[in-house]
Design brief:
Layout lengths: L20 H21 L8 H5 L3 H20 L1 H4 L20 H16 L11 H5 L4 H16 L7 H16 L33 E5 L2 E4 L5 E7 L2 E6 L2 E4 H8 L7
Antiparallel strand pairs: 1-2, 2-3, 3-4, 4-5
Helix pairs in contact: 1-7, 3-5
Keywords: Cytoplasm, Cytoskeleton
Family: Belongs to the GAS2 family.
Subcellular location: Cytoplasm, Cytoskeleton
Length: about 260
Amino acid sequence: SHGRMWGTPGPAVRSIRPYPTSQQYLYAMKEDLAEWLKELYDLDIEVGTFVEVLETGAVLCSHANNVTQVAGEFARTYPEVARHLHLPTACVTCNLTAQPGTFQARDNVSNFIQWCRKEMDIKDVLMFETEDLVLRKNEKNFVLCLLELARRASRFGVRAPTLVQMEEEIEEELRQELDLPPTDTLLPRPPRKPRDLNNLDRCTCPVQFPMIKISEGKYRVGDSDTLIFVRILREHVMVRVGGGWDTLEPYLDKHAPCRCTS
């Protein structure tokens, strides 16, 4: 069941879990990617087993081959557009029975990394090394690479994780605000049902930290002209500023007077 199905929002908002703030964003991304892979390939994977399921590289290589297959279908259906996109054409050799930590697992992960670089044109700054995954040296780099791959693959019809869908919605909103022409979205997507954002505009600062609501999920913050977009991702309140994401708690810790200790 690869391809053109788009994710649905998760279950109702539970209380926001108190993760250490540096870990919170990574956790939210892993949770989103795990749910996405589970739906895409009917995998037994969740946030707690995320690295375990992926560290042999077998799922990653199968995913790469699926992405290449969808790209081929896209190129046949939309040849004109395909000429302007960097589409993958080569598949990855893969040992599906590789065990964790073995040379075969390293080979799989290494092949996937080469494919991301060469076939998907992912820049080094968003790449990870084999050891980052196999020896769990840097989970964050691995997660960021998977997200970037998902962004690129969504352009030609691979279903995207919720976080990427949110990015696309926000980019569209910004384009409309700046009167820019829409991007060539050939693949119509059913609208995501946004989650309720009540209780976000409360602040306990003696001098109020203004969060001016401009429209649903869009705020102007403090006394600057900074626009932030707020979205609910499962039980995380995600804040998009500029080109990046943060979770709400660390964002307020950095910017709201009642939280700032510096």
